[in-house]
Amino acid sequence: MRIERPTRNSSAMLGRRELLAASAVVGSGLAFPQRGYGEDKPIQGRAEHVISIWLGGGMGQIDTFDPKRKGDPKEKRAGSYYGSIETAVPEVRVCEHLPRLAKLMDRVTAVRSVHHEVIDEHAAATNRMHTGRPVSGTITYPSLGSIIAHERGAAHEGAPPYVLIGYPNVTRGPGFLGTRDSYLYLTDTSQGPAGLARPDGISSRRQSRREDLLAVLKRNADPTVDQRLLDYDEAIEQSLKLSGPEFMGVFDLNREPADLRNSYGGEFGQRCLLSRRLIEQGVRFIEVSHNLNFLNGIGWDVHNEGIRNQHKLIQELDTAVSTLITDLEAKRMLEKTLIVITTEFGRPPEFDSGGGRGHQGTAFSCVLAGGGLSHRGAWGETDEIAKTIVSSPVSVPDFFATICAAVGIDYRKNLYHGDRPVPITDMGHPISELFT
Description:
The chain is α/β, with parallel strands linked by helices. The chain has one domain (40-197, 243-435): Alkaline Phosphatase, subunit A, CATH 3.40.720.10. The chain has eleven helices and 15 strands. Strands 1, 4, 5, 6, 7, 8, 9, 10 and 13 form a nine-stranded mixed β-sheet that branches. Strands 2-3 form a two-stranded antiparallel ribbon. A two-stranded antiparallel ribbon has the order 11-12. The longest helix has 21 residues, at 310-330. The radius of gyration is 24 Å and the shape is globular. The relative contact order is 0.21.
């Protein structure tokens, strides 16, 4: 009897067969969510809402939540532009222009070790910090807001799941998830969403006739299975419901006590106040964009002389966010509401020729507050000039996974673009220490 010995080619064929078999399991979505994760069950927090504050332009970590030694732009000495102060958490310091937040840092974690590879392109970095991924030529990824809307929906019937207070664009949108998981947006807190207000000259009676006509057209139309059309119909139906006085009343900030409104500050603060009212109404995810009425005339993109009045912007952030935290706490909503502060990248410790700062994506800060997390003031560490991460690096997928875990979403699962599995956070791992 002749015994056949395995040859090099037969071993290679066996390897390919095993690989194909494994790939089939991964493609089915059965095994993929477990790959790369050590825990048997996903970490799950108890937050119900997210208020995401977007600081467009690039908040400098070294001048806000990760202060270092004092620098000097005239002498070209790298370092912080401002002095630092102690906080409620021992050994955690913040910029001197954040005195109100300093007293609340026991409810806050400044994640000082966020990083990505995008350096000099605002649009690409904005996309990265909204979708968690690089720009792709073949797929439009959903934003974090749309992901949470898709997974959790609105907290109460009669509210949209996702509201954007700022200018809309594709980076904030639903991507391949479709229209149903998009946002309702407004740009002016004194007016509410323009898309829900009836045009001048359209009376309630005329609006009712239009709705009756639309209902007739839908009844007589051929049935469709096109998901895009179904999502569009659902969006129209939701808009009609939301345009009523019950939901639209949430935008009337005059219903709030005058002293509370004043404590929030200007337009940015009013946006933060509105976000609290939207949370009470049942909105799941709100982005508050800090992109109007910049006190320093340029925003967070502080190249050259733009840095001179940066302190006014930091003070405005301090006023609005500290009031939001204490307001939510007074209403017993802080434990259920995760506040997130993000920006497209940070700033290097060196000064440019005009005394300002360039861009830095290799080490920067994002902030978490409330949401039932075990806060510690700061997480992660950078070197003596906030240029290099020296401990506990947090990738953008890791940061997204932390947010998803906080609101009870399985950060290990797949979304599907057609039949293509897409890991929901690009294989991110949450900061587990914030859940202990």
